[in-house]
Amino acid sequence: MTSNEMSDSINQQSNEVPTLLIRDSQNRDLLCFLEQVVPIQGTEYALLTPVDTPVCLFRLVEDGDPELIKSIENKDPVLEVADVVLQEHDLRLIRSAVTLTVSGELEEPEPDELEDKDFDDESETYELLVSFKLKDDEYGLYIPLDPFFVVGKLEDGQATVLEGEEFDTIQPLIEAELDERDY
């Protein structure tokens, strides 16, 4: 199926938001909802949102803002502890492309139980999902409350994550195209 055929079949589906499996340069997959297809210079790009809940791992620091852990190996002991803690809540940590995600039914917190915090990191707001200790350090898995988008390139019926320089080049063009559509 060509990417044009994919776009046509996506446009024909009206009741359900289509999903698409996207792959990164390390061969990790992420199942996403297809939000928009944006043609740029003869190539189709996709704006996607993860099907499962994206989460960010922070090291909790006494007397300071939590520190975002930007890169972590799949077999890191902190992720193994996070797996066990999430299993206690009938949740599962998925080491997917682009971000860690959590699958399962998340409980809606009571309004007075929300632990929303504004971190200085990219001015996003996060909600604590779980916290846990490993050795002498405390960690937390947080859900970003701002929408979490993934940009992919559609080729030959496949979607790949835009990364590095290619992402830096294409992102402003996609944003300009989407802004144009809003008018």
Give your account of this protein's structure.
The protein is α+β, with helices and mostly antiparallel strands. It is 21% helix and 40% strand. The protein has helices at residues 3-12, 77-87, 164-181, and strands at 19-23, 29-40, 43-50, 53-60, 67-68, 92-95, 100-103, 117-118, 125-134, 137-144, 150-155, 158-161. The protein is elongated and about 50 Å long.
**Helix-and-strand structural type:** alpha+beta
Helical residue percent? 10-25%
Q: Rg to the nearest angstrom?
A: 18 Å
* Run of helices and strands: HEEEEEHEEEEEEEH
What best-fitting shape do the alpha-carbon axes yield?
Answer: elongated
- DSSP helix count? 3
**Poorly predicted segments:** 1-14, 112-123
The main sheet comes to: 7 strands, antiparallel
- Counting DSSP E segments of at least 2 residues, the number of strands comes to 12
Question: In whole angstroms, how far apart are the ends?
Answer: 31 Å
Strand content: 35-45%
How many separate domains make up the residues? 1
User: What's the pLDDT, averaged over the residues?
Assistant: 83
Keywords for this entry:
about 180 residues, alpha+beta, seven-stranded antiparallel sheet, five-stranded mixed barrel, 12 strands, disordered N terminus
